[in-house]
TrEMBL record:
It comes from Rhodopila globiformis (Rhodopseudomonas globiformis). This is VOC domain-containing protein. Residues 50-163 form the VOC domain. It comes from the Bacteria. Coiled coil: none annotated.
Length: 164
């Protein structure tokens, strides 16, 4: 019986605002928060990391953008000129592009990487190298800051962005 406790559709819909009960969203996503990463040896001050985005690389940028808008309520945030779009997916930034010619590291279609921002770029990379993490490529960001792509498990990658 619809609307009874335990009815999965009703419970899912109750998480949505009243005006959009049909949205079938799963649950609200909290805003990204700054965390203190324990990347440094005990006794040292840890660096601050904040989650920034998930990057989806696709063969069809427009179809992928529309998929997240139509099915999950994403909104267009900004165009990435000549590459794709930034979407807001309930507080999480999705970057949707194709393969980027200027990046020389191996790129994959699908969820390619997640990105963090650090206030101690040299310290973060030093610790990652100390832990045996492969640095795939270092670049200059659009604002002149340093950016690194590093290997993660199962072919995934992480992007480390210098906070400026």
């Amino acid at each position: 019986m619809a609307g009874t406790p335990g009815d999965a559709d009703e419970q899912t819909n109750l998480l949505c605002p009243p005006a959009s009960r049909r949205c079938r969203c799963l649950q609200p996503v909290p805003k990204p928060a700054t965390i203190r990463a324990s990347l440094l040896p005990t006794g040292k001050t840890p660096m601050a990391l904040t989650f920034q985005h998930v990057h989806l690389k696709t063969r069809d940028v427009q179809a992928t953008v529309q998929y997240y808008i139509d099915n999950f309520g994403a909104t267009r945030k900004a165009e990435i000129p000549g590459r794709g779009w930034q979407l807001d997916l309930h507080g999480t930034q999705l970057n949707i592009t194709g393969i980027i010619a200027e990046q020389k590291h191996e790129q994959q279609y699908g969820i390619e990487h997640m990105a963090v921002v650090t206030d101690d770029y040299p310290g973060t990379l030093a610790k990652l190298r100390e832990n045996g993490v492969a640095v795939l490529e270092e670049l200059k960001g659009e604002k002149g800051n340093r950016v690194a792509f590093v290997a993660a498990t199962d072919g995934a990658q992480m992007e480390v962005i210098e906070k400026i």
